[in-house]
Design brief:
By secondary structure, this protein is of the alpha+beta class. Helix content is 22%, strand content 32%. The strands form two sheets. The protein has a nine-stranded mixed sheet. A two-stranded antiparallel sheet has the order 1-2. The mean pLDDT is 86.
Length: 204
């Protein structure tokens, strides 16, 4: 017997995609059944038929769709840990607000965390107030990197690392020439907390 409801197939497919995008794994039969308001048995029959049709893949345990399958569904999990000042360094305590799944084929692999940018000092680097900045966790930096750092007073900020000056100070540069022309922060002690790798923007 074939199950002909195209509407229900579409609901199942949409739910599976959204679940996998959010969680990075296949939903269970029960989770699908609850979402689309049918029995687990009905979900199973539809998954088997959709697999036979090629709409999605189902091997009895995991589900794959055109957007998410076992080959490309690899994620790095990043903690969203609040704001990072892009202006003067400030004291900030880490607090985990949420977790974000980052597709490896887009963001690469590694230990990541995410911060919301606060302030306008990094506009020329493509980072605006409210943007989400993805940080690759590491403790070294190269000249030109956008870094999250703790200064010599234990305060953190997001700036461009420009190496050391002639007096041995670490140079952290603002990147907004229209507002802060050639402005820099000089610190004697520096602890790199990570290097910015991507910026996620909200369309205004």
């Amino acid at each position: 017997m074939r199950y002909k409801s195209a509407e229900l197939k579409e609901k199942i497919y949409y739910f599976v995609n959204e679940w996998m995008r959010e969680h990075g794994s296949s939903p269970s039969l029960g989770e699908i059944a609850e979402a689309v308001h049918v029995s687990r048995t009905t979900v199973l029959r539809y998954l088997v038929e959709m697999d036979a049709e090629g709409t999605l893949s189902y091997n009895g345990r995991t589900i794959g769709t055109r957007e998410y399958n076992r080959r490309n569904m690899r994620f790095s999990m990043a903690k969203l840990v609040g704001e990072i000042p892009c202006g003067e360094a400030q004291e900030e305590e880490e607090r985990i607000e949420d977790y974000i799944n980052l597709p490896v084929n887009v963001f690469g692999s590694g230990e990541f965390y995410a911060l919301r940018a606060s302030g306008d000092s990094m506009e020329d680097a493509g980072i605006s107030d409210g943007d989400m900045v993805i940080i690759l966790q590491r403790h070294d930096a190269s000249t030109g990197d956008i870094v999250v750092v703790l200064d010599d007073e234990g305060r953190n900020t997001l700036k461009q690392y420009q190496g050391r000056d002639g007096d041995g100070n670490f140079v952290l540069a603002y990147r907004n020439e229209a507002v802060y022309p050639d402005k820099k922060i000089l610190v004697k002690d520096l602890a790199v907390q990570g290097v910015a790798s991507h910026v996620i923007k909200k369309l205004r």
